[in-house]
Amino acid sequence: MRIIRLLPILLLLSTTIFAQQQKADPANKPAPVTEDFKDDWANLRHYEAENKLLPAPAPGENRVVFLGSSVFEFFKTRLPEYFAAHKNYIDRGVSGQIAPQLLLRFQQDVIALKPKVVIILAGSNDIAGTTGHVTNERILNDIKSMVELCRVHNITPVLCAYVPINEYPWRKGLQPAEKIISLNEVITAYAAKNKLVLLDYYTPLVDDKKGTRADLTLDGVHPNAAGYKIMAKVTDEAIAKALKLK
Predict the structure, then answer these.
(1) Which residues form the SGNH hydrolase-type esterase domain (predicted)?
(2) Are strands 89-93 and 117-120 parallel, antiparallel or unpaired?
(3) CA-CA to 64 of 20 to 30 Å: which in 16, 25, 56, 220?
(4) What is the pTM for the complete model shown?
(5) Residue 27 CB: number of other CB atoms within 10 A?
(6) pLDDT truncated to tens, each residue of the chain (246 aa)?
(7) Cα–Cα separations (whole angstroms), residue 75 to 1, 27, 37, 146, 191
């Protein structure tokens, strides 16, 4: 009888001890949950928090947004003094992005920031085949959609002739030089037909092999500080032209 009476107590004690052992054993800790961002293909989270902290433009402020991929993302890190001197310049470059990703980010990273001007630098990663091969027509269609959004929201678009590239270090043998030239011709023709400002990054950087001059680049694709200084000069000139259209 005494054993029967003690049985519930023994069961309770054994359960408690087992639970404590399980809790103390690090092997029993639940695996950390990694959030899945497959649905954020355009990487909207990249600037989401920063955008929330950005105040609205001050009265009379000529805010300018730089929308592009790594060439623009590195602009602010390799020539930080340029953006420090122009507080109204907002860099929204995301490395590796192709034109449709820029289009998907346009609402959050351009329109919502209420700029007077947006500089659109698109096409290189599309050509590089980072996520697939596309045509100039498809790249231009995405640019056209961004231009049309600008018209609705009273933003002046500035289109860019892309920097010269003779070789992608991560896609050797692709021979992108002529592809970049061809894309630039299409963008230049569209800008001229629609009386848009064209920002030519190609001409001041190009060498005799249709790539970026060796003294102006780190890897043949991305400019170094000296290259960005040249880009800064022509950028300011293009922005001045765009603001006259307002």
Answers:
(1) 76-230
(2) unpaired
(3) 220
(4) 0.85
(5) 5
(6) 444 454 444 444 454 544 455 554 555 666 677 777 778 999 999 999 999 999 999 999 999 999 999 999 999 999 999 999 999 999 999 999 999 999 999 999 999 999 999 999 999 999 998 666 789 999 999 999 999 999 999 999 999 999 999 999 988 888 999 999 999 999 999 999 999 999 999 999 999 999 999 999 999 999 999 999 999 999 999 999 999 987
(7) 84, 46, 26, 22, 24
CA atoms of 125 and 119, how far apart (whole Å): 17
Which domains, ranges and CATH numbers included, belong to the chain?
45-244 (3.40.50.1110)
C-alpha to C-alpha distance for 164 and 179, rounded to whole angstroms? 10
